[in-house]
Backbone:
């Protein structure tokens, strides 16, 4: 018996220290912050990771940049907020410029793979796109399901190639109503000359329209997303003043000779034009006479060019979008079109859209951005679906009041806002 007790005491003496050590709190190894740049596949990139990173990863897709050569890296507007929340972010300048989302999607996928290899796998990844980056974000969610656990866009091309359809439809309407053969112009220089010398004279400018200019403006009102009753989107004219002429875009008369992939894929075949009554041009006449333009063969084929194909709305993860009412370059109508696609696909519960009453493009203040990002993270991590706006409401005159921190003085509700 004495021998057994002695052996038991020896075992306890050997085991107890290891048990105590195991249960004692250990000093955690400090993981240093990372902030570095590099080049991957001909594209400059940047990686930013906070100290002791244990959060998620934000993959930022910037907007369009023009000119030759590779693109420039830009930090996400929420860079500091992302780091302060304990998350990492990465951004690519892309291997090229202009409108080539088919390349840029792959640049970001390659950069994410590099992050996983060198930093580690994140618990979740969000694709965050601004302007053209919205096309990249939504196409990435649809075409590469499972890669990202959420999407966030600002002023984004959420309905993809529909933005090119919008600009071509805008130009075709200007051609018909002005009587100037814009779409027959053999080159960009001739197009610009006809625009400046003849279209302005025929239509006038915002605030100084001719009778035909008022017809054109009514058409544009609906192309930008006016509701079924014809209510103006708040501050639409403010946004249009910046984009009125720039939205009239040149495309080679023979689309097979067009080299830009977005222009090759653009189509007006399915555009249904609307115009207010009493302006001397009926909706029936408008749709019968306006020039219809088809895309190049296979330019928007899901099998051949899936990034330029029409979006399907088949979301598998949460997507939260921000958009301005008066954005005339990337209009609210793209948000409306994508909402309809998600409804048809049965995925509309995965889409939350918030609208700012503003007349610019990508003009969000940091309060609305930060709140939206935090709400998206809560949705991903805890399943808390945030509130949004109904962009398909029958009356859009009050849309965006909840998210607009500072009302523009020209907003029709600026001095009648209810608490």
Residues:
């Amino acid at each position: 018996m004495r021998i057994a007790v002695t052996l038991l005491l020896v075992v306890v003496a050997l085991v107890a220290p290891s048990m105590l050590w195991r249960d004692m709190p250990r000093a955690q190894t400090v993981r240093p912050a990372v902030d570095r740049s590099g080049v991957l596949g001909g594209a400059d990139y940047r990686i930013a990771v906070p100290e002791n990173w244990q959060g998620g990863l934000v993959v930022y897709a910037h907007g369009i940049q023009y000119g030759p050569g590779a693109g420039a890296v830009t930090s996400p507007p929420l860079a500091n907020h992302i780091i302060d929340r304990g998350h990492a972010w990465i951004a690519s300048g892309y291997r090229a410029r202009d409108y080539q989302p088919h390349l840029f999607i792959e640049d970001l996928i390659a950069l994410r793979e590099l992050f996983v290899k060198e930093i580690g796998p994140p618990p979740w990844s969000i694709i965050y796109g601004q302007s053209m980056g919205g096309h990249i974000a939504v196409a990435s969610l649809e075409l590469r399901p499972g890669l990202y656990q959420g999407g966030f866009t600002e002023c984004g091309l959420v309905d993809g190639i529909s933005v090119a359809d919008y600009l071509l439809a805008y130009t075709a309407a200007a051609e018909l109503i002005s009587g100037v053969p814009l779409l027959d112009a053999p080159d960009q220089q001739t197009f610009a000359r006809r625009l400046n010398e003849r279209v302005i004279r025929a239509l006038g400018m915002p605030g100084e329209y001719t009778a035909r200019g008022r017809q054109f403006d009514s058409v544009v009102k609906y192309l930008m997303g006016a509701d079924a009753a014809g209510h103006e989107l708040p501050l639409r004219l403010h946004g249009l003043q910046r984009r009125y002429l720039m939205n009239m875009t040149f495309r080679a008369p023979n689309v097979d000779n067009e080299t830009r992939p977005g222009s090759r894929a653009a189509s007006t075949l399915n555009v249904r034009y609307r115009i207010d009554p009493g302006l001397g041009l009926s909706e029936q006449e408008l749709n019968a006479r306006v020039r219809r333009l088809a895309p190049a063969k296979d330019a928007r084929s899901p099998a051949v060019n899936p990034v330029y194909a029409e979006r399907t709305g088949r979301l598998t993860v949460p997507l939260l979008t921000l958009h301005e009412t008066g954005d005339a370059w990337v209009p609210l109508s793209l948000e409306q079109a994508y909402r309809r696609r998600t409804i048809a696909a049965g995925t509309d519960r995965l889409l939350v859209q918030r609208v700012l009453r503003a007349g610019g493009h990508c003009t969000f203040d940091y309060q609305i951005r930060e709140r939206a990002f935090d709400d998206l993270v809560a949705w991903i991590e805890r399943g808390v679906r945030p509130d949004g706006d109904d962009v398909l409401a029958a009356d859009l005159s009050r849309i965006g009041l909840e998210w607009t921190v500072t009302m523009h003085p020209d907003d029709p509700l600026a001095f009648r806002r209810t608490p």
